[in-house]
Amino acid sequence: MGKNATFLRRAQMKRRKPRKALESVARAIKDSDAFLDHVGGVAELYRREHALDATPRGTALRQSLKAFRKHADALTHWLEQAHADPAAPEQDALNKLGAVLYGSAHRAHVTSAGVAEWLTQATAAAARCLDEAALFPKQAQRNAPIVAAEALRATFEYHKLKFSAQIAGDRQSDAVRLLCALARNAGDVALTPVDARQALQTSARRRKQD
Q1: Whole-angstrom distance between the N-terminal and C-terminal Cα of the chain?
Q2: Which residues contact 59 (CB under 8 A, 6 or more apart)?
Q3: How far is C-alpha 42 from the geometric centre of its chain's CA atoms?
Q4: In the chain, fewer beta carbons within 10 Å around the N or the C end?
Q5: What is the DSSP string of 164-178?
Q6: pLDDT at 94
Q7: Where are the domains of the chain?
């Protein structure tokens, strides 16, 4: 429940009242003021992320992720050499840094081990974000549906509603219908039910990998 609560708190910040069309879809799923209140929070998340997607900042974000992955890979390799090879100049450098920073070469090895672990995890996360953008080029500049899908999943679980990304002909799951309504509420008229399903599936993959 902890992660769900985090999403719900984030979604509830600085929200506006949902428009009538969104309220109608939400109440058809669950006629509850509390549920509508949480959906309003997700709507504000979508609106904010959609505004960001529409600016050059989205492209800059991907470029920054690429730069991070490149430098993190290099630093991770450097730390591996510093830890593994007593004859390596990297270990001499790390020992020197430890002496200056802590008065102890050993402490630098202990501290940097945690840094190396974080860099490995963060590099994998950056690669995952970039892979998703390459796999779904249409969604590459649209982070809003995925962010909203993650918050929507937390909302459904909190209210004990079935969460599904299914589409069967003209029939759509409640989550797909609500995500499309959230998009329209934010002015994102380009999001289709197929796009919504894709965003929900992407958020599910991220959750499994966390």
Answers
A1: 15
A2: 141
A3: 14
A4: C
A5: ---EETTEE-HHHHH
A6: 96
A7: 2-55+142-209, 58-135
Burial class of residue 13 (count of CB atoms within 10 Å of its CB; 0-12, 13-18, 19+): exposed
pLDDT at 155: 95
| Angle at alpha carbon of residue 187, lines to 54 and 46, rounded to 5° | 70
Please report how the helices 33-53 and 174-185 are oriented relative to each other, as an axis angle in degrees rounded to 10: 60
The burial class, CB within 10 Å (0-12 / 13-18 / 19+), for 119 is: buried
**How far, in whole angstroms, is CA 128 from its chain's centroid?**
10
Among 40, 39, 49, residue whose Cα is nearest residue 16? 40
Mean pLDDT by 10 residues, the chain (210 residues): 54 64 96 94 92 74 90 96 94 96 94 94 88 56 86 95 91 96 93 93 76
pTM of the complete model beyond 0.90: no
Per-residue buried b or exposed e for 129-161, using 16+ beta carbons within 10 Å of the residue's own CB = beebbeebeebbbbbbbbbbbbbbbbbbbbeee
